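Repro:
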Amino acid sequence: MDSKTILIFRMLSEKEIGFFRSIKLSDVVKKVTTIGDDHIQENLFFFNDGDPCPQPFQLNASQLENCPFLKGYDYFQVSKIFSSLLFDSMYRFVCKYSSRAVR
């Protein structure tokens, strides 16, 4: 543990530390939304028998579509005509205002 963690543990009692360690994600979701106890499962990461909103199976990465790696916006992906018009208008804008700055 680092020094900040040790300092925090010294400030809290064992009972308080136990309280924070016992908080589940479902407790946080219930507190900050209007979802009732009977509409959310206790363990949000795994489906167990008897949980509300039954799932046909537990999802994993092999059952999902591949996500394309997105570094940024590809202006040419939309259409070649749109991108040529975009660059043409940018070129005209720069030429128009750069000639005024030179005068």
